[in-house]
Design brief:
Length: 452
Amino acid sequence: MDAYQIEKTKNFDGIISPAEFIALQKLFESTYLDQTKYPERLEAHRRPQELKNEMLMNLNQLLITMHQRPEMRDIDEKVAGYVPGRVKEIWIADKKIRSCYDAIIKYCALRSADTNSTLIHMAEYKALYTVFRKIQRSLKVIKTINLDHPKPITMKKTVHPIHFEDLSWSQFEWLIFAFVRRLRTWDQVNWFGQLGHDEGEDIWGESGGATYCYLCANYKSLTLKKGKDDIDKLVKFNRVPDFLIVVCGGKVAASINKGIREHAQHAGINNVEIWSGPDLEENIREKANDLLERFFEGISFPKTAPSVSGDKEIIDQLADCFDRPAFTTPFYREVNIPDFGKAITDTIEVLNTGVHRLRDGTLIRNIPTRHQIKNPVLKDKIAAIYKLVVKLRDTFVELNKKKEIENCGCGDPDCPVYLLSDNACQKMDRQREDIFKAFRDIKKDFSLKLEK
C-alpha cells in the first residue's frame, strides 16, 4: 500500500486532521513491516546485521524513488527541490510551528499545493524514514541496560590525559603510523620500525615530492642524546628528509627541544617539529579521535606480528579485505554514503597496518601488511593497488566537493537519501573495477567483481 492507493480508496471529510496524519504514518509503517515480514525475519535470521543492511538498502531506494514523484517535487521560480526539505526549512524558521503537520499545511498554502495529497505522500515518506532510522540506530548504538530498571541509562565519562607510556614500543609506533597516514595524501608511507629497520627512521613518507621522517620516542622525558643519536643515524645512512618530526610519549623540556632543533639544522634538516605527549594527544583528538578509542579502550594488540609462511598468504589475506559491500556494490545502490567513505579509509588502513575492521569500527582481525611482502615485484604491484585505493578515496572526496554526490537537501545530517550523478556512479564503479583488475594480475583466482 502506498500514498496513491490511499488517495484512490480513502475519503476524508475536508482537510486531513493532525490525528489522521499520525494515523496514516502508523498505517504506512505497519504495512511496510508486514509486507517485508521484517520482525519475523529478524528474529529468525542467523546474521541480523546482514538483514538490516538489506532492509536499509531497500528503504533507501524507496525514499529516492519517492523524491521523484510529482507530489514530492518543490519547484519555484528560482530553484527546484523536494517537499521534505522545504517543509523542514519552514519548521526550522518559525518557532510557532509546533509540528511537521503544521509545516506541511503552511507549505501547501505557500505553494497552492493540494493539501490532502501532500499530507498523504509526506505521511508515507515520514513512515519509511522512521523505519530507516530505527534500523540504522540499531546498527550503531549500543546502550547499557540496568537489569533492575530496563530503561536505558547514560554512562558519563571523565576524560583523563592519555598515558602513552603504557604502550609498548611497537604499539606506540603503530599508533603514530595509523595517525600519520591520515594527515595527508601520501605517494607512499612506510612503517620501518615494525620490521626491525635500523637506519634511523621509524616512519618514512613521501608526498608531493617532499620526504617526511617520523622518529618515535616513547619516553616519559625525552633526552637530548636520544634525539641526536637518531638524527646522526639518518645522516650516516643518507636518509636526510625534507621534514623531520620527533614524536614523544612524554614531556619535552625547552632546552631539549632547542638542542634537537639545532642538531637537526646542522645536519641539513631545516623543517623540524617536536611533539611532546600533550602535543600528540591534542593532535590525535583533533584529527583522528577514533584512534584513541581503538588504542586505549579495549582493542587488544597481537603480541607479535601475525605469522605467515610467504608472500602468497599475505596477498590472499589482503585480497580478502576487499570482499565487502563498499567494493562489490554498484555505487548507485550504495545504502550509506558516509559509511562508504569510511570503508575505503579502513581498507587503506588494513593495507598499511594490518588492522582489519568493519564500517562501524569493529575489529575483525589483525593480518600482515603490504610492507611484509618480500618479493620486490609483488610488493610494487601491491603498492600500486594501494595507490588505486587512495585514488578511489580522493575521487570520492572530490565528487562530494563538486556536489556530484550530494545529500538530498532536507537539512537532516543523518538523512539516508543522497543524489548521485551518472558521472559519479560511473567513476566510482570504474575505479573499483581497476582495483579488481590489478588484483587479478597477481592473484589468478581472485574472483571479486561488482554485483549486477
